[in-house]
Amino acid sequence: MDTKRILRHMLTPAWRIRVTFPRATLAAIETAIRDAELTHNGEIRFALEAALQPLPLLQGVAARERALQVFSRLRVWDTEHNNGVLIYLLLADRDVEIVADRGIHTRTGADEWERICREMETHFRAGKFEAGVLAGIRAVSAHLARHYPRHGKKINELPDSPVVL
């Protein structure tokens, strides 16, 4: 049991998201996703969570495991070409996880996603949350454009708005 992690989560209230990600930042993230998706046939979702609830926290649920749960809950997998990508931020841990649907994952592997996550976390450690997320969206989009270049009319299968859990 990681006592420091438990305390960090217990001391990270839900309102911390509103301070760190005010409405203007959430709007900028939505715009960035909408604009990014015009360059490829992938789908991007961004979800953030202040802290884990006590039971999952005590069970030792890692950010990756939680990201997989959120990926399923938001139905990011439910796209015609299995081309959805979730960018998940667990604020208490300042941990970013990227979950790519099986259609993308088989083409790309995990190394590039991991590099993007670490880049975003570097911004977060400096307190630059909006810049970190926007840089992450741009990097994910560039990666998707290489593997899912835009062909024909773009159908937006998933909402572009950030999800606050």
Overview of the structural elements:
The chain has about 160 residues and is of the alpha/beta class. The chain has a single domain, classed as Diaminopimelate Epimerase, Chain A, domain 1. Helices cover about 50% and strands about 15% of the residues. The protein is built from eight helices and four strands. The protein has helices at about 5-10, 15-20, 25-35, 55-60, 65-75, 100-110, 110-125, 130-145; strands spanning about 45-50, 85-90, 95-100, 165. A four-stranded mixed beta sheet has the order 3-2-1-4, with helices on both faces. Helix 3 (about 25-35) runs parallel beside helix 8 (about 130-145). The longest helix is centred in the C-terminal third of the chain and has 19 residues, at about 130-145. The protein is globular, with a radius of gyration of 15 Å.
